[in-house]
Amino acid sequence: EDQVTQSPEALRLQEGESSSLNCSYTVSGLRGLFWYRQDPGKGPEFLFTLYSAGEEKEKERLKATLTKKESFLHITAPKPEDSATYLCAVQTVGAGGTSYGKLTFGQGTILTVHP
Amino acid sequence: GAVVSQHPSWVICKSGTSVKIECRSLDFQATTMFWYRQFPKQSLMLMATSNEGSKATYEQGVEKDKFLINHASLTLSTLTVTSAHPEDSSFYICSARRDDHAPLHFGNGTRLTVT
């Protein structure tokens, strides 16, 4: 069974204090790893897709990296507007090598950035 | 970018009544859409995969007669919660992808409260 575990559950940072969020996964065949941001009462907003170990993606203050067992979301000099829940999800290869688009989500990390 | 619209954003209904939620892909055609459910401070749980022109595929433990899904066109999927009860109160989110290589994009969710 595919499993995705995110840590920490909650993270409080001061504005400008860089840190990293972790996403560990156990899957039978990784098709892609996705990072989303979710604000309260809203649907998840797509951030990154990573496909293979060693891959990195960047967007403004965020940088996502991927190994064979985990992914990190690095936040550099965060601002209060970066406060949100960050979700990690994996898409796996289905039977016969197909991909159905089904995502398995982690529990999320609630990030709070104080001014 | 891809946009998924969900309506209504919130609904309050009485126990025993049915509620319909719409999910539209605004700028692309989606042969497959996904319906998720999210409880407070928990992650997204896939309920079912909606397939255009065919029956939906439900995840284990999800009652197909209670959560009716109709994917009438390439841009519209609906979820009907039939004979709703207070335990059905939750945040329902739909998602869609342009093609198998594209990331899932989510609607803004529907907050259902059954009184």
The secondary-structure class of chain A comes to mainly beta
Structural class, judged by helices and strands of chain B?
A: mainly beta
- Strand elements of chain A, count: 11
User: Major sheet of chain A: size, sense and barrel closure?
Assistant: 6 strands, mixed
Strand content of chain A: over 45%
Tell the overall outline of chain A.
globular
| Proportion of residues in helical segments of chain B | under 10%
Structural Rg of chain A: 14 Å
Tell me what the structure shows.
The complex is a heterodimer of chains A (115) and B (115). Chain A has 115 residues and is an all-beta fold. Chain A has strands at 3-7, 10-14, 19-26, 30-38, 45-50, 56-59, 62-66, 70-75, 84-92, 103-105, 109-114. In chain A, β6 and β7 (62-66) form a beta hairpin. In chain B, strands 2, 4, 5, 6, 9, 10 and 11 form a 7-stranded mixed sheet that branches. By secondary structure, chain B is mostly beta strands. Chain B has strands at residues 4-7, 10-13, 19-25, 32-38, 44-51, 57-58, 67-73, 76-81, 90-96, 105-106, 110-114. Helices cover 0% and strands 51% of the residues of chain B. The A-B interface holds A 32, 34, 36, 41-46, 49, 87, 89, 99-108 and B 4, 6, 32, 34, 42-46, 49, 91, 93, 95, 97, 100, 103-109, 111.
